């Protein structure tokens, strides 16, 4: 028997991720990624923002017709035309359907973006949820810019949305301004003020403007969120969203925290590469979990340790994630890794030959990188 708490993984690669500057996925590409996300084991796929373009409408529709297990969601503002477009795009879906309704609750958003008074926002929260509650399986209500909103007002809006039928409430750190302790405290505060939140799913959605999206998401879980919204490779508006692979692996490595997800981590490497290829967003080499250097060891001291035992410098087994450990040769590499690279290339050298090849390697590696054993031996032959 396990008493682990199951965290719902809401993937928004195809909506918030696609909103990254320069990304435009075709409906076919969305389907290809959605099927990979289904194999990865995500619980909810936010497939797009149906009203935003004919291509997005078609993307949501096509994803709904393609996947069978995860819930498929469309994003919508609290406007009837948005909500109706989302309902229509989801009409043929084979799995559960969800509309993710967004409405700003911060003074900044209410005054400058929406031009609405708080009482109007409260009423719009209620009426927009009521407009779709009987037309899809689930309604998620989002208080946009929640972390810059008054918690008492957020609690009132959440109460109204839940009374109207929302079964999921999202309290995002839209502009990525919160610190982990602050985000956790904010979620606790709103839950205390809104007892109805105990009966629905609370969702965390964090942006990476200060590099804290994953830390804030984990703080959100500790503060009671049971759904997290994230993207593959952390793509998303501006600096991006919390990276799915980082949140999932943090929960897995720290299993003592008592959480589990439905993610098949063996699919992580594949989905990461697919999203990078289809979006054109290259993964930075030192990106946690999926960066090309995340399991690469070039320095001699580390290579020596890794050759003795992988646990010396790795907390994860990349093979489990569909990735691999590499020991690239470079300026800081040592004799052990050089010897191993020669052996792997099928090159047999006497101790004396190895010593002189290693000297040559060090001279070459000081000038350029990467260096292969073949570069070194070509030099010897020349
Ligand atoms: O960052 C955000 O606040 C969002 C919501 C509108 C869901 O993407
Ligand atoms: Zn977002």
CATH topology of the largest domain: TIM Barrel
Largest sheet: 8 strands, parallel, barrel
Give the count of structural domains: 2
How far the N terminus sits from the C terminus, by CA atoms, comes to 66 Å
Strand % is: 5-15%
pLDDT averaged residue by residue = 97
CATH superfamily of the largest domain: Aldolase class I
Q: Count of DSSP helices?
A: 15
What is the gyration radius calculated from CA atoms? 25 Å
How do the SSEs run, as a string of H and E?
EEHHEHEHEHHEHEHEHEHEHHHHH
Enumerate the distinct ligands: 3-methyl-2-oxobutanoic acid, zinc ion
Helical/strand content category: alpha/beta
Please tell me the CATH architecture of the largest domain by its name: Alpha-Beta Barrel
The strand line-up of the biggest sheet is 2-3-4-5-6-7-8-9
Shape call? elongated
Q: Assign a percent range to the helix content.
A: 40-55%
Map the helices and strands.
Blueprint (H helix, E strand, L loop, with lengths): L4 E2 L1 E4 L1 H5 L9 H14 L3 E5 L5 H13 L4 E7 L2 H11 L6 E8 L2 H8 L3 H15 L5 E7 L6 H14 L3 E3 L9 H14 L7 E5 L7 H10 L4 E4 L13 H10 L5 E2 L7 H12 L20 H9 L26 H10 L6 H15 L7 H9 L1
Parallel strand pairs: 1-10, 2-3, 2-9, 3-4, 4-5, 5-6, 6-7, 7-8, 8-9
């Amino acid at each position: 028997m396990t008493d682990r708490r199951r965290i719902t993984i809401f993937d928004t690669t195809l909506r918030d991720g696609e909103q990254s500057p320069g990304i435009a996925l075709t409906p076919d590409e969305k389907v290809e990624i959605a099927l990979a996300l289904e194999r990865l084991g995500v619980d909810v796929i936010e497939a797009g923002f149906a009203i935003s373009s004919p291509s997005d409408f078609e993307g949501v529709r096509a994803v709904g017709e393609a996947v069978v297990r995860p819930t498929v969601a469309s994003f919508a503002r609290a406007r009837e035309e948005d909500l109706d477009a989302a309902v229509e795009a989801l009409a043929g879906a084979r799995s559960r359907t969800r509309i993710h309704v967004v409405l700003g609750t911060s003074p900044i958003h209410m005054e400058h973006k929406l031009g609405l008074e708080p009482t109007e926002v409260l009423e719009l929260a209620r009426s927009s949820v009521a407009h779709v509650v009987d037309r899809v399986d689930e309604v998620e209500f989002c208080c946009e810019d929640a972390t810059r909103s008054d918690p008492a007002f957020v609690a009132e809006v959440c109460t109204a949305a839940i009374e109207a039928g929302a079964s999921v409430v999202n309290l995002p750190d839209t502009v990525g301004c919160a610190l982990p302790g602050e985000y956790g405290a904010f979620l606790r505060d709103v839950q205390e003020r809104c007892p109805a939140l105990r009966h629905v799913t609370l969702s965390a959605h964090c942006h990476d403007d200060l590099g804290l999206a994953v830390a804030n998401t984990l703080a959100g879980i500790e503060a009671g969120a049971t759904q997290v919204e994230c993207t593959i490779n952390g793509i998303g508006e501006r600096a991006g969203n919390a990276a799915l692979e980082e949140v999932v692996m943090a929960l897995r490595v720290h299993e003592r925290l008592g959480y589990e997800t439905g993610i098949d981590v063996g699919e992580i490497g594949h989905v990461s590469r697919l999203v990078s290829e289809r979006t054109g967003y290259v993964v930075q080499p030192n990106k946690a979990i999926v960066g090309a250097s995340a399991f690469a060891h070039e320095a001699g001291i580390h290579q020596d340790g890794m050759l003795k035992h992988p646990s010396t410098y790795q907390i994860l087994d990349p093979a489990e994630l569909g990735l691999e450990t590499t020991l690239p040769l470079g300026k800081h590499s040592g004799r052990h890794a050089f010897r191993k690279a020669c052996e792997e290339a099928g090159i047999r050298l006497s101790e004396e030959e190895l010593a002189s090849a290693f000297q040559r390697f060090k001279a070459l590696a000081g000038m350029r990188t990467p260096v292969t054993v073949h570069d070194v031996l070509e030099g010897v032959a020349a």
